[in-house]
Design a protein that fits this description.
The protein has three domains: about 80 residues, Winged helix-like DNA-binding domain superfamily/Winged helix DNA-binding domain (Arc Repressor Mutant, subunit A, Orthogonal Bundle); about 120 residues, Aspartate Aminotransferase, domain 1, CATH 3.90.1150; about 240 residues, Aspartate Aminotransferase, domain 2 (3-Layer(aba) Sandwich). Helix 2 crosses helix 4. With about 475 residues, it is α/β, with parallel strands linked by helices.
């Protein structure tokens, strides 16, 4: 066994800030080292231009293999956290100038998982797909709603959420928006009312209006939709459909408790209202209550899209229906405007599910989302709702109105989503949704959140009182 040389005292002093680099983290040690660098830069423990310890010195200090330090430094360099200056050594990198490039904090997509090479995953996935499949079959028409193998893969993906799902009652859709349109067409007629919360995913009111239906909102409290208000709305409007996004709701990031879910189910059942449960974020939520569809499978149409858990580029969503009659109606409605999901990307998604790659990607996405939530909490302070998932709902100080803040952020090169983008009446919110996934580099997101924090701290009312 090779004897370790004692660390030079001067070098040890220079490395003292790094002694806790692997403490309290999770995951591989090389990624814990990268996370430490990111946190230390954020809280000022490490400063841009500061020299990092030599890799061998740091390996001895942390009592790990040199390869662990090398992997960590390579990943930190890829993220723009450190820079190598030849024989001078490795230094903490200065924040990169963004010039005129906008940072998108408005688009709700999953962040890229760290430590996974997306290019390699795509190359390997497509290569294996071509080995298993006929290229001609991938480039021709396929069965609308998914072949039997596609539906079986969808049931496998949903099993951790719903338990055993019947592939015969599952429809594979080209995205959640197409699935929503098909549900509205299948179970309502022009002029019907669709019920939702006042603050709602913008795709729903758009689909409702385009298809000649009407949207009516149901009052909420801090937890979500109120059962008594739902009962009153059902009596008033004679609604046939209720839309709910019960877990890490978009935009408010609230999650309905199990008790509230059961109360809403009882009200909807009493009035014969069909529930559409749009549930893309359930896997992100710690200790999430059971989905509505698991509590009342005969009453709920359950929708889950890979766009929010893996990648929007896959354009694959799974829809489970209560019975064969509902399945037939939705499939007919879907085929009226979308014959099939794109065969190539759909086949890739199904292969990833069967091979376990989809689970691996999602674990990486969830870990990255958690890291970004911690970063946002550190830089912006507490947000409303749960600190989980790929977005947060940030209540604004009284001196900022949401539209004004969004406009001011735009001049700073930041895109955020104001509450007015979601409010269908009665939302009574003065908040913005901050999406954490669209910016690929975590360091760039960190710089953007710092700029947003500085903007939020500017009291415009105090400024208005200044006379010159």
């Amino acid at each position: 066994m090779t004897r370790k040389e004692p660390i030079d005292p001067d070098k040890k002093d220079a490395a003292s800030a790094w002694t806790s680099a692997l403490h309290g983290g999770v995951g591989p040690r090389y990624l814990r080292l990268v996370d430490f660098i990111e946190r230390a830069v954020a809280d000022g423990t490490l400063s841009p231009g500061e020299r990092a310890p030599a890799q061998r010195t740091l390996a001895d200090l942390l009592e790990v293999d040199l390869t662990t330090i090398t992997r960590g430094f390579n990943e930190a360099r890829r993220r723009g956290l450190i820079e190598a200056r030849g024989p001078l050594g490795t230094f903490i990198a200065a924040p990169r100038a963004e010039l005129a490039q906008r940072v998108d904090l408005s688009m709700n997509i999953p962040p890229p998982p760290q430590g996974l090479d997306a290019d390699a995953l795509l190359r390997e996935g497509l290569s294996r797909l071509l080995l298993r499949s006929d290229a001609d079959l991938l480039m021709t028409y396929h069965i609308g709603g998914g072949a039997a193998a596609d539906c079986a893969a969808g049931a496998k993906w949903l099993e951790p959420v719903l338990g055993t799902a019947d592939p015969a009652r599952l429809v594979v859709c080209p995205g959640a928006q197409a699935a929503l349109a098909a549900l509205i067409l299948a179970f309502t007629v022009p002029g019907d009312v669709v019920l939702s919360e006042p603050l709602v995913y913008p795709g729903l009111p758009h689909a409702v209006a385009q298809l000649g239906r009407r949207l009516a909102t149901v009052a909420t409290d801090a937890e979500g939709m109120l059962p008594d208000a739902l009962d009153a709305a059902c009596r008033l409007h004679g609604a046939r459909m209720l839309y709910l996004n019960p877990t890490l709701q978009n935009p408010t990031a609230t999650t309905l408790s199990e008790a509230r879910r059961r109360d809403l189910l009882r009200v909807a059942q009493r009035h014969g209202v069909r529930i559409v449960e749009d549930d893309p974020y359930w896997r992100f939520a710690p200790d999430a209550p059971p989905p509505l569809a698991r509590m009342a499978p005969a009453q709920v149409c359950y929708l889950s899209t890979l766009s929010k858990t893996l990648s929007p580029g896959l354009r694959t969503a799974f829809l489970t229906l209560p019975d064969s009659a509902a399945h037939a109606r939705v499939l007919a409605a879907l085929r009226s405007f979308s014959l099939m999901a794109a065969p190539l990307t759909n086949a890739l998604a199904m292969q990833w599910i069967e091979d376990g790659v989809a689970d691996e990607i999602f674990r990486g996405v969830r870990a990255e989302a958690q890291a970004r939530q911690r970063m946002a909490a550190q830089l912006l302070g507490p947000a409303a709702g749960e600190n989980a998932g790929i977005h947060l709902w940030y209540a604004l100080p009284s001196y900022w109105q949401a539209r004004e803040l969004a406009a001011a952020a735009s001049t700073e090169g930041l895109a955020v989503a104001p509450c007015t983008a979601f409010d269908q009446g009665g939302g009574a919110a003065n908040a913005i949704r901050i999406s954490l996934g669209a910016t690929a580099e975590r360091a760039r997101l960190q710089a953007a959140l710092r700029r947003l924090s500085a903007l939020l701290a500017i009291d415009r009312s105090a400024q208005a009182q200044v006379i010159v």
